[in-house]
Amino acid sequence: HFGVDVAAYARELMRLAEGALQEGASCCGALSRAERAARCYGASTATLVKAGADAATITAASLGDSGFVVLRPIGGGKFSIIARSVEQQHHWNFPYQLARLPRELEESVPEDAPQTSARDAEQYVVEVLRGDLVLLFTDGFSDNVYDSELLDSVLSVSRLARRGEGKSTRASGADVVAPEAIAEALVELALRKSRSRRSRTPFADAASQQGHFFIGGKEDDVTVVAAW
Q1: Best exposed site among 41, 81, 108, 137 by fewest CB in 10 Å?
Q2: Mean pLDDT across the chain, nearest whole number?
Q3: 116: closest CA among 91, 135, 96, 134?
Q4: Beta strand residue intervals within the chain, DSSP E
Q5: Contact 133, 226 (CB under 8 A)
Q6: Can you give the pTM of this predicted structure?
Q7: What confidence tens digit (pLDDT) does each residue in 77-99 have?
Q8: Of 223, 21, 2, nearest to 100 (Cα)?
Q9: How confident is the model at residue 174 (pLDDT cuts 50, 70, 90)?
């Protein structure tokens, strides 16, 4: 009715932010430029990560309940989480979001409604080592998958690759699991749990802490990006 396509808005934000990053902008600066230049209508959370010129750090900007984690190998195909973003919420299940709305819809928004811009994004600098794995994800993933399940899934994919039964690639001078294989496995895990009425999930735990009754997974779009 209002011509709003949130997926188109999110894609446009990332396309514009990518261009800004390639021109040398910081993550927060790129997100701000994308916010100003977007022409689609919609609303979206956002997470950007950029490798430092020295390859010893990554910088990030994260707004809302999308996010990232950095995993470090600890031997035997296992990893530990060494850094992560923190969700930004106005209140439970109401994350910070960028938005561009048609005038008739914008006029219906209460004057006291929380306002968010790219300047509100949390900024991060993380020291990284060769072999670290960076994962970016939407809340469709983090609402349904515990850290322990994430780590177990990455371990399973790593073991398959080491046995020659999975995808592998060469990164940082070593043979590693293909990042797309890790991302695909994590998406499949999140989708499976999101559709289950019996699964225990982080979203259900959070709902219970807020006094709400919720069982099982939370169905949502799921995106995971993996990079060595």
Answers
A1: 108
A2: 94
A3: 96
A4: 42-44, 46-51, 57-63, 67-75, 78-84, 89-91, 94-95, 98-100, 122-127, 133-137, 168-171, 174-177, 224-227
A5: yes
A6: 0.94
A7: 899 999 999 999 999 999 999 99
A8: 2
A9: low
